[in-house]
């Protein structure tokens, strides 16, 4: 498997892990960004990078449940906040080493 293919497989797996962690809030979670484009275009010939290592999720606050808190759900799912580049909502998978 090439490096780009491996990156895409790992990134998709982590995206699925995040979606699983947020399953209680599935009505509020929207996949956006490059991963959403890849999921909707499949093998279409478009001018995009071959792979992306991040995933972008939006939360619709109107559909968000009260429990668990997003932080609790993500932590329970094996994610942690990015303390090296702190920005609201920037989570890293447990395998990430910085």
Report on the architecture of this protein.
The protein has one domain. Helix content is 36%, strand content 14%. The chain contains three helices and four strands; from the N terminus they run αβαβαββ.
Question: Which descriptors would you attach to this protein?
Answer:
two-stranded antiparallel ribbon, alpha+beta, 3 helices, 98 residues, two-stranded antiparallel sheet
Question: How many domain regions?
Answer: 1
Spans where pLDDT lies below 50 across 5 or more residues: none
Number of helices: 3
Radius of gyration from the alpha-carbon trace, in angstroms: 14 Å
How far the N terminus sits from the C terminus, by CA atoms, comes to 24 Å
Element order, helices and strands?
A: HEHEHEE
Strand share of the residues?
A: 5-15%
Q: Note the main sheet.
A: 2 strands, antiparallel
Number of strands: 4
The coarse silhouette is globular
Q: Report the helical percentage.
A: 25-40%
Mean pLDDT over the full residue set: 82
Strand order of the largest sheet: 1-2
């Amino acid at each position: 498997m090439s490096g780009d293919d491996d990156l895409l497989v790992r990134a998709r797996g982590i995206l699925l892990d995040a979606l699983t962690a947020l399953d209680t809030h599935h009505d509020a979670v929207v996949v956006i960004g490059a991963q959403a484009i890849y999921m909707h275009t499949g093998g279409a010939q478009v001018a995009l990078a071959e792979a992306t290592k991040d995933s972008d999720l939006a939360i619709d606050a109107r559909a968000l449940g009260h429990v668990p808190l997003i932080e609790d759900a993500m932590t329970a799912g094996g994610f942690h906040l990015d303390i090296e580049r702190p920005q609201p909502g920037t989570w890293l998978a447990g395998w990430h080493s910085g």
